[in-house]
Design a protein that fits this description.
heterodimer; A: 432 residues; alpha+beta; Beta-Lactamase; 5-stranded antiparallel β-sheet; 17 strands; B: alpha/beta
Chain lengths: 432, 266
């Protein structure tokens, strides 16, 4: 008979390994339920239904710094807790356990004999007897020191973030209030009453900080004439607002000095050029400036205007027609030391309306993919359909049009309509 | 908004019976009464509700100002009674709600004709000549403990998920949900509860009153039960052989018997 051991030494080693494994496994088996209970890496506790501690493991006693005979039969579960924990136990833990027969993952603090405390996570389940009556409460306690520290850090961070958010919100509100006041200073609250004339205006602001770059105004020059202007400064935001402010007050002052439209725009050109040349930040605007001179004898309104690079005004006639009032060739205001401006005149009769607008309107992007522009033609067609209507009604229709552009309207847009009322305008009758 | 939905009012029991209003205390919601309702339902119209800021009340109705005093919670009680046009109801209040009932009965005497106080305490903090069971520091510790516990995942998530109106079913799946409220609102209720002092209000009680206390109650010790009993003229004191602050859960039979005996005596 051959000696297999000689021929196959490996199996013998394998057997030896098996023996070693078996010994280790046997050692594990000797980690009996009792030892596991006593020295588990978590606390175990069993109490009567009234909370009296009937059984507690060594791990938990060690955490608490208590001896078994001090605890068993003498203390209740709540005696192990801090006062805050006791209250939480009575108001949340006990009711929930009673209603659900189990509860898990509740954060409580254990008191240690030395006066320290251990943050723990506690889970409990009620053991029921064969007839369903509750017999005892089994509780496991996990050391949660690291986790609680982490959670507290999270809470601190959350509070800090919340505080920062509140501050940012307050700053934002304050800034918005300041901007609103500033913006109001750039646009008239209400337009003045011009005898025998109706005016209406609308301003759409596209920028989130509400500081637009368009402007308009109507104001008295002398006993019989009124000035008006509407324009668009380059850029947006605070710098544009500063330019708007300078433009607006310059035009008003210039008009009082010399109401002639070309003269007023020339003054503005000089001021802007002087202010922004050499600043490294050349700025300019487009503008229409004009005068209104009502003729009480005929009931008409003479309009003289000049344009510096601004889209042409539209005249809507009482007979249902509408046409551009061309002002070709006028230069941008403020870009050159001297500039040529183009003039135009018209006379508005009852039911006629002059409309001034900024290019936010004609350059609104249209179509499904927002690639087309609204354009002059569409505008003229739209206005023709509203010709004969009074200024407020034209502005109302245009406001609806702007709304219909939705996100296709991404620029500020100013609208100013000036018209002569018809004889059946109720306010005209009142004036008689 | 209707009071019924604001306070998640539930009406059950015998519609012809004398109304009994069950008011939960600080911590959980009307589910606390689920072992009590069956004992009352045959003979009484049983009204349950959640205070605004607790349970399934409408959190949007919460105002820190209103609910920083027990009068605010008492307003909830009176408004629930008015909404259902309850008359001569028996008000059963647990813990701090017993005091809310005292205030509500004074405000709307025609609505509330009798009081049952379950583990009441008119003041939780010790005072000269009075033992409420807690020091002011203890209460601060409870408030800190509340904060800590709302970091426990289930408790912290429940209000968030319950606040998710698109997926209300999530709230149902969560355990512990009926004791989980918005931490900010719970903090207000905790302060109002544990810093209140209603001792003087007890003297105003003129309706028949049952005071239920437990033999072992960490929150409302026996001295407090005796104090309440002594302060309310003609009240009945019953000491339940029960441990803890919620005898209606831990000793429901004894609690129900005491309440039904009292109702029968009215």
């Amino acid at each position: 008979m051959m000696c297999r051991a000689d021929q196959h030494p490996e199996p013998q080693d394998a057997d030896a390994e098996k023996v070693a494994d078996a010994a280790a496994f046997a050692a594990l088996l000797e980690d009996g339920a009792e030892d596991l209970y006593e020295n588990a890496p978590c606390g175990y506790l069993s109490t009567l239904m009234d909370g009296t501690i009937a059984k507690i493991n060594t791990t938990l006693l060690h955490w608490l710094g208590l001896e078994r005979d001090e605890v068993v039969g003498r203390m209740r579960f709540t005696d192990l807790l801090t006062v805050g924990g006791k209250l939480y136990h009575e108001t949340h833990f006990a009711p929930l356990l009673s209603m659900q027969s189990e509860i898990s993952g509740i954060a409580l603090d254990l008191k240690q004999t030395g006066g320290g405390r251990i943050p723990v996570l506690v889970s409990s389940a009620v053991k029921h007897g064969t007839t369903g009556q509750p017999l005892m409460i089994r509780t496991t306690v996990f050391d949660a020191r690291d986790r609680r520290a982490y959670e507290e850090e999270l809470l601190r961070r959350r509070e800090a973030a919340e505080e920062a958010r509140r501050r940012a919100e307050a700053d934002r509100t304050r800034l918005q209030e300041a901007l609103a006041v500033l913006q109001q200073s750039l646009l008239p609250d209400t337009l003045p009453e011009v005898p025998g004339v109706r005016t209406a205006a609308h301003y759409h602001t596209a920028s989130p900080d509400r500081l637009g770059g368009d402007f308009y105004d109507v104001f008295a020059i002398d006993g019989k004439r009124f000035g008006f202007f509407l324009g668009d400064v380059c850029g947006k935001g605070p710098q544009a607002a500063a330019l708007t402010s300078l433009t607006r007050y310059t035009l008003r002052a210039a008009a009082l000095h010399d109401p002639d439209p070309v003269s007023a725009l020339t003054t503005l050109n000089r001021v802007l050029h002087e202010r922004y040349t050499g600043s490294g930040d050349p700025r300019y605007c487009t503008a229409v400036y004009g005068t209104l001179e009502p003729d009480p004898g005929t009931g008409t309104l003479a309009v003289h205007l000049a344009s510096g690079g601004h889209p042409p005004a539209v005249v809507l006639r009482a007979d249902g027609t509408a046409d551009f009032l061309p002002t070709p060739g006028g230069l941008l205001v403020g870009i050159l030391p001297t500039a040529r401006f183009t003039t135009a005149t018209t006379v508005l009769g009852p039911g006629d309306t002059l409309l001034l607008y900024t290019d936010g309107l004609t350059e609104a992007r249209t179509g499904q993919d927002r690639t087309g522009l609204y354009g002059d033609e569409a505008l003229l067609a739209f206005l023709t359909a509203h010709a004969g209507r009074p200024p407020h009604s034209v502005i109302e229709a245009l406001t609806g049009l702007l709304d219909s552009f939705g996100d296709g309207l991404d620029d500020d847009t100013a609208l100013l309509a000036i018209g002569v009322p018809t004889a059946d305008d109720p306010r005209t009758r009142n004036e008689r | 908004m209707g009071i019924a939905s604001r306070n998640h009012v539930t009406v059950t029991g015998n519609p012809q019976g004398r109304p009994v209003v069950l008011a939960h205390g600080f911590g959980c919601d009307q589910n606390m009464w689920r072992l009590t309702v069956p004992a009352l339902a045959d003979d009484h119209r049983v009204v349950l509700f959640d205070y605004v800021g607790s349970g399934r009340s409408d959190a949007s109705a919460f105002s820190e100002e209103r609910y920083s005093s027990l009068e605010g919670y008492a307003r909830d009680v009176v408004e629930v009674c008015e909404a259902l046009d309850l008359r001569d109801a028996v008000f059963v209040g647990h813990s701090v709600s017993a005091m809310t009932g005292v205030l509500a009965a004074a405000e709307a005497p025609e609505r509330i004709g009798a009081l049952v106080m379950v583990a009441p305490s008119p003041r939780y903090i010790d005072d000269e000549g009075y033992r409420g069971g807690f020091s002011a520091e203890d209460i601060d510790e409870l408030l800190a403990s509340l904060e800590a516990n709302y970091l426990g995942w289930s408790a912290a998530m429940a209000p968030l998920i319950m606040g998710n109106a698109d997926r209300p079913e999530l709230g149902d799946e969560l355990k512990n949900s009926f004791c989980a409220t918005d931490p900010d609102m719970a903090r207000v209720f905790a302060r109002t509860t544990f810093l209140s002092d209603s001792r003087d209000d007890l003297k105003s009680v003129t309706v028949p009153t049952l005071v239920l206390e437990c033999t072992q109650d960490v929150i409302a010790p026996r001295e407090v039960g005796a104090f309440v009993h002594a302060a309310i003229h003609g009240s009945t004191l019953v000491t339940l052989d029960a441990t803890g602050h919620c005898p209606h859960l831990s000793a429901p039979d004894a609690t129900n018997r005491a309440i039904t005996d009292f109702l029968a005596s009215l």
